[in-house]
């Protein structure tokens, strides 16, 4: 028996010392395999949805985020990583991605409209 078990003390699990949300989002865009096979096709579906003037919910990103985390864990087996993302983490990452993609979409459309005017 260990000393901390006698007194009922449970050591805290080590945590990652970086922003997991931002790192996962960077991975989604920077990893060539994940981007090419998963994120890029999903991005085009989002943009096609926007072209039809339909709103894209952050919930639409959930499966991509979960898949990205699974791939991330395989590529970077860091012992401090939790087995799964919490629902709150998934929600926050989805909201960030949705905002990022909608902004990219509008910037692209604005740039394209400006080029057509010239």
Describe the structure.
The protein has 118 residues and is mainly α. The chain has one domain (17-117). It contains 5 helices and no strands. The protein has helices at residues 3-6, 20-30, 32-51, 62-75, 87-117. The chain starts with a helix and ends with a helix.
Provide mean pLDDT, rounded. 86
Query: What is the overall number of helices?
Result: 5
- CA gyration radius, whole angstroms: 19 Å
What count of domains describes the coordinates?
A: 1
**Uncertain stretches:** none
Strand tally, please? 0
Termini Cα gap: 77 Å
Structural class by secondary-structure content = mainly alpha
Question: Beta fraction of the residues?
Answer: under 5%
Helicity range: 55-70%
Q: SSE order, as H and E?
A: HHHHH
Shape: elongated
Question: Biggest β-sheet: count, sense, barrel?
Answer: none
List the quaternary state of the chains. Answer: single chain
